Automatic annotation (TrEMBL):
Region (Disordered): 386-411
InterPro entries reported for this sequence: HTH_IS21_transposase_type (IPR017894), Integrase_cat-core (IPR001584), IstA-like_C (IPR054353), RNaseH_sf (IPR036397)
Family to which this protein belongs: Belongs to the transposase IS21/IS408/IS1162 family.
Domain Integrase catalytic: start-end pairs: 112-300
PANTHER family associated with the record: INTEGRASE PROTEIN, TRANSPOSASE RV3428C-RELATED
Protein name per the record: IS21 family transposase
Keyword DNA-binding (UniProt): yes
Pfam families documented for this protein: Mu-transpos_C_2 (PF22483)
Signal sequence interval, chain numbering: none
Gene source species: Actinomycetospora flava
Presence of keyword rRNA-binding: no
Occurrences of domain HTH IS21-type (ranges): 1-59
Keywords: DNA recombination, DNA-binding, Transposition
Amino acid sequence: MEAHALREQGWTISAIARHLGHDRKTVRAYLEGRRVPEARVRREPTLTEPFLEYCRLRLAEDPHLWASTLFDELAGLGFAGSYPSLTAAIRTHGLRPHCEPCAASKGRDTAVITHPAGEETQWDWVELPNPPTGWGLGREAHLLVGSLAHSGRWRAVLAEAEDFPHLIEALDRVTRKLGGLTRRWRFDRMATVCSPSSGTVSAAFAQAAKHYAVAVDLCPPRHGNRKGVVEKANHSAAQRWWRTLPDDATVAGAQQSLDELCERLDGRVRRRDGERTTVGELAAGEGLRAAPAAAFPAELAVVRTVSGQALVSFRGNRYSVPPGMPGAQVVVRHRLGADQLRIVTATGATVAVHRRAPNGAGATVRDGGHVRALEARVLQAFTDSPPCRRKTRRPAGDASQAEAARLRGTPATGAAERVVIDMAAYAALVPAAARATSTNAGETW
């Protein structure tokens, strides 16, 4: 309005721009009617052709791929645009295929629960389907996720199973990754924590909770939204990490990539009391308590198969056992916090005790007695006899030919019918031959 008034008064565009503190092109656009107050021109999102085609192919392969996951991939390919520009381009170009079941789903009312700083950590298991074949885990991998309810920081660790010892080990590791302990832990009704029907905390887990000096809260049945912070973390772990994990990834490599993702997500922007902050800054201000020096002493027990070199694999290392057990099933037992592990047979006999090597070190830990016994057993199996001559002609013998003929239902090839006559029969025939001579004068025997 003021620009039009000043123009009518004979001001130049440059003078109006200096007076209003705007650019001359802006003033000219308003005066010529190319721009209207409170009506912004919508710019079409730009996405260069190589990245546009990649987005189209990736979303055709996986229609439910998160845009944030796609943005991470594009950033590694040299994409310099912003995340909002990517999502705008996906909508404008219609890159995401339509999914009728998802489009037909409806939301529901939700309420936001306030969590004071340092008050609660939420825990949950995530079953991840189709792990890499080299992991040897079967149909599912197990991931324990822990999330600070106030800040939203979350960490997770892979576990071989979901039994009580593996739960305690994973709880301890995630707690240290989060930076400490809150005052309370919240679980759904998992059987290793409580009785699913009654909601009573088990005696074993009560001892673990006392060890870490935390109180335990349980969600009511079928009310997983009471721990919505960790549920969202589960979603992020499955969609932003597990969905794109390569087939050749190792367990250690997968854990490292997950830790890197969690650290990047600490930079997520949050608004608290009108102030801009991040997840990492909120987590740093939660005032977490330090974890105990050692984990709760639960004992892990996993089944392993002895190799031909009398070695047993455990957590990225190999440990020796006495010779003579190739292919046998043994149980590796390790008490959390201890420096040693035991290898036990199916009958309960301890066959080896070793000092445990760091996880994923690739070490081979051998007992001196096992090495000497294995060498002696191998040497005993050696022989001084000359090796068999592989080019000697050895046709099928009579027994083999007779069996082959029986199978064919024909007489054996080259085997003439033999008649065995007792010599006593000749002796009995001699007198008869003499009598026959008298009647047949022209014949002799």
